[in-house]
Amino acid sequence: MQEDKDIKMTITPTPTEESEVQESLASASVEENIDKDLAENAQEASQHDPTATTLEDIMHQEAHESETQPPSNFSLSRTLGGAILAHIIQSQIKLVLLITLFLIIYITCRYQCQQKMVEIDRMEQQLTAIRYKATVVTSFLTEKSRESNIMDMLEQKGDSTLQIPKDPPYKINVPE
Questions:
Q1: CB-based contacts of 155: which residues, under 8 Å, 6+ apart?
Q2: Cβ neighbour number for residue 160 with a 10 Å cutoff
Q3: DSSP assignment of 80-122, as one string?
Q4: DSSP labels, the chain
């Protein structure tokens, strides 16, 4: 087994480092002395005067006083007068404003959506009317362009040069 050897090492600080260390120790000791003095003064004051309060007690009281407490009496007149509702709204004003903002956005989006739906319905009705009109015009054109109707029209006008052919059409082959 190896024997454990104690190593002793000494560090000698440079003069500048030594002064910095002494200054930091001095400032730390001054702060500790101030804290000790305050604590001793608070203890002496509380020993001599039982009504004396410490700084912590005062801060604790102020923190509790600054908190708003709901009214302890819930009477009908306070409820109908709106005091309770006003207190709730005052304590939750940011939440109320956020909810109001979301409601405004929701109502605006819904209104725009309804306007677009009305426009879509109006355009669908126009499209249906135009399709009906196109169907009527197409059927009228088909009726007028029949061969028999064209011949009747020509006979009424007195043009007899055009007649319905009696022989079927035939193909003429042209050499290239």
A1: none
A2: 8
A3: HHTHHHHHHHHHTHHHHHHHHHHHHHHHHHHHHHHHHHHHHHH
A4: -PPP----------HHHHHHHHHHHHHHHHHHHHHHHHHHHHHHHHHH-TT---HHHHHHHHHHHHS----S---HHHHHHTHHHHHHHHHTHHHHHHHHHHHHHHHHHHHHHHHHHHHHHHHHHHHHHHHHHHHHHHHHHHHHTSHHHHHHHHHHHT--S----SSPP-------
pLDDT in tens, 85-130: 788 888 889 998 999 999 999 999 999 999 999 999 999 999 999 9
* Predicted model pTM: 0.39
Note the pLDDT of residue 82.
79
**Residue 176 and residue 24: Cα distance in Å, rounded?**
117
User: 52 is written with which tokens?
Assistant: 């004396």
